Amino acid sequence: MSRLFWKFFVTFWLTLLTANIIVGGLIWLHRSAEFEQQQGSRPGQPPTFMLGVAASLLQHDGEESLKQLLRDWQQSHPEPIYAVDAQGMDLLGRPVPEGALDKARQGIRDGQPGPWRLAQRSMSSPILLFMPGGPFRPEDLFGPGGGPPEAHLLGEPGGPPPPHRNMGPKPPLPWLLIATGLVASLAFSALLAWTIVGPIRRLRQGFRAVAAGRLETRLGQEFAKRKDEIGELGQEFDAMAQQLEALMATQRRLFHDVSHELRSPLARLQAAVGLVHQDPSRIAGALERIERETQRLDEMVDELLTLARLDSGTSGPLEDEIDLPALLHSIVDDAAFEAEAQGRHVDFQDRCGEAPAFIRGRPELLGRALENVIRNGIKYTAPGTRVTVEAERDGDSLRVRVADAGPGVPEAELDAIFVPFFRGADREQQRGYGLGLAIARRAIQAHGGSIRASNRPDGGLQVEIHLPLQPIPA
After folding, report:
1. Cβ distance 222 to 234 under 8 Å?
2. What is the dihedral of CA 416, 419, 425, 426, to 10 degrees?
3. pLDDT over 90 percentage in the chain
4. Peptide bond preceding 135: is omega within 30 degrees of 0, i.e. cis?
5. Buried b (16+ CB within 10 A) or exposed e, 310-327
6. Of 247, 286, 319, 395, which one has the greatest count of Cβ atoms within 10 A?
7. Checking phi first, is residue 129 left (phi over 0); if not, alpha (psi -120 to 50) or beta?
8. For each successive 10 residues of the chain (474 residues), what is the average pLDDT?
9. Which of 469, 464, 418 is nearest to 448 (CA)?
10. Are 188 and 230 members of one domain?
11. Are residues 341 and 307 in the same domain?
12. Cβ-count burial of 49 within 10 angstroms (0-12 exposed, 13-18 middle, 19+ buried)?
């Protein structure tokens, strides 16, 4: 078992054990208090009550029953009841206090009310019943309502309730309940601790597996079924592992694509050098080829560095104020000039209105993203056709559409064209390295925007860009 398990287990167990002890102790104290109250003289129960009960018991059941009542009373009450015969002897053989006996006899002779009774059964000798305590007030003798002693005889109307029975010995501590609670708390604490620690152990195993390179590790349904924070943690782990696996796959594919793209210009460079060695008279053409391939390598390295900075979030602060319509006008003018030389045209439709449309960011980075999208349209649109660039407000954002009249892209590849080095099915007809749109997506996302591609109904590809506008204080 882990240390965390024992920490949870001991904490839960001590908490439950303490709660059981406190509750059990309170219950036991309450029962003990009730027992003592039932065994002792009750506040509303006068001394004459028990004397009346004893006298009634002697008259109906005889001396043996009276003796048993006196024994029971003596075991549970500090104030005794004496039963004295004509010779002054107590029926239980107890020593009789002389002063109390004389006082009781005098009260009987004078007919005074008090804690004494004279009772006898049929033809037997009378028995003097009395309690030596005192002095007693009237309400102590007859109860809160007062009244003559005869009102307190057992069974008479208006008398007190039936006499208290002896409840036996004081209730012991509930050891069986304590032991049961102890065992139950142990089992419950162990189950609760394992319920918490078990998933954490599984998470630790998952993290170790990912750290060892097994990025396909998933926690699966074990955590998906849980509806608590631990279940959410397991789902976040699966999402993290999936993202790591995708990133590593992208990285491996990127390394493969980079090595492949570098191999071609390097091979052409080596071929040009070999031609010069074989025929020095061809050095002019070889140098031209070397210069062209070197330029291509420089462009590809520059694009790779840009892509790497965007992926790592180190492209620099996005704090400049950018006038988006003005930036688009500048990019479209440059692109239109180059397109004219290729027999293509670029139209710009500015529908932003007179209101300023600003965004905070980096002008060169955002300009490169927009330029890549427009140049991609010029590259694939058919000769003699137009690339249309539209810009208009869409609530709190600016929407830019770039539509060409090229062959379009298969529906299954519309999202893949934004992946670095992606080449479609007609790769032999494609030019470039497949990095322009990848850089465009990451740059636009860095500015809080989005980009998507779709095929036009009448042919060609349309790229739609949304960039959030931000008010720039004056």
Report:
1. yes
2. 120
3. 17
4. yes
5. bbeeebeeeeeebebbeb
6. 286
7. beta
8. 63 72 71 62 57 85 86 82 88 88 88 85 82 58 45 40 46 64 75 75 86 86 75 85 83 74 81 88 87 84 79 70 90 92 92 83 90 92 93 90 93 88 60 78 91 93 92 57
9. 469
10. no
11. no
12. buried
Residues 329 and 463 in one domain: yes
Per-residue pLDDT of 192-235, as tens digits, reads 777 777 777 888 888 888 888 888 888 877 777 777 777 888 88
- Residue in 60, 256, 260, 329 annotated catalytic: 260
325 shares a domain with 460: yes
Query: For 130-181, how does the pLDDT look when each residue is reduced to its tens digit (9 = 90+)?
Result: 988 655 544 444 444 444 444 343 334 334 444 444 444 555 556 666 677 7
In terms of DSSP bridges, do strands 461-468 and 397-403 run parallel, antiparallel, or are they unpaired? antiparallel
35 located within any domain: yes
Burial of 239 (0-12, 13-18, 19+ CB in 10 A): exposed
Q: Is 329 assigned a catalytic role? A: no
User: Strand 82-84's sheet: what is its strand order?
Assistant: 82-84, 127-130, 116-119
Q: Yes or no: say if 70 and 81 are a contact pair by the CB < 8 Å rule.
A: yes
What is the reported pLDDT for 41? Answer: 44
Residue 205 located in a structural domain: no
Contact 308, 283 (CB under 8 A): no
Q: What is the pLDDT of residues 61-94, one digit of tens each?
A: 888 888 888 888 888 777 888 999 888 899 898 9
Range of the domain at 221: 215-314
CA-only gyration radius of the chain, Å = 52
> Residue 99 class from Cβ within 10 Å (0-12 exposed, 13-18 middle, 19+ buried)?
exposed
Taking alpha carbons only, the member of 354, 445, 350, 360 closest to residue 401 is: 350
Q: What is the reported pLDDT for 166?
A: 46
Assess contact for 219 and 238: CB atoms under 8 A: yes
Report how many domains make up the chain: 4
The 3-class SS string of 97-136 reads CHHHHHHHHHHHHHCCCCCEEEECCCCCCCEEEECCCCCC
